[in-house]
Amino acid sequence: MKIAIISASVRKGRNSHRVALYFKNYITEHKIGDAQILDLHEYQFPVFEERLRLLENPSPQTVEFAEHITSADAIVIVTPEYNGGYPASLKNVVDLLYTEWKRKPIAIATVSAGPFGGSQVITSLLFSLWKIGAWVTPAMFPVPNVEKAYTETGEATDKDATDKRAKAFLDELIWCATAKQKMGN
Predict the structure, then answer these.
(1) Are 17 and 23 in contact (CB under 8 A)?
(2) What element of type H or E holds 69?
(3) Diameter over CA atoms, the chain
(4) Does residue 184 carry a pLDDT above 80?
(5) In this predicted model, what pLDDT tens digit does every residue of 95-144 receive, in sequence order?
(6) Which residues contact 37 (CB under 8 A, 6 or more apart)?
(7) What structural domains does the chain harbor?
């Protein structure tokens, strides 16, 4: 199973990337699949001007990103909450692609420095993903107080409890991806 993990923050000193690293390590350690982080900080996409399919000369980087999304069996989006919403970097790539998201199983992990774990971002992100036909799993993974919960290298400070939550979260995503494969579309 090929799982793409989108690390959505491009901010200096970002903490949500810790959770993306955790998921990559967890998926690899538990032999769930081939996990790859698509780090939007590294891509540094320009501000959205048009969908990929309508761009006359898309950058090789944009085409590469689209290929990673298309070839992934499932996607984990790790996003911080900024003022009740998700970062422009994530909105940018959601809008950039279209058919690549269609019926793609996606699980959302939300992150905040405060006690609510990014819970306010879910509604706006869900709506955008639903509008483009993505298949968002009902399992969510909110992460409050991220700096206390994960090290900079993605290690959970309470490994047993975090691994238990991650298993349930990823089991739902894998179930959806497997169901999609059985359906053949």
Answers:
(1) no
(2) helix 60-71
(3) 49
(4) no
(5) 989 999 999 999 999 999 988 888 889 989 999 999 999 999 999 999 99
(6) 5, 6, 7, 20, 21, 24
(7) 2-183 (3.40.50.360)
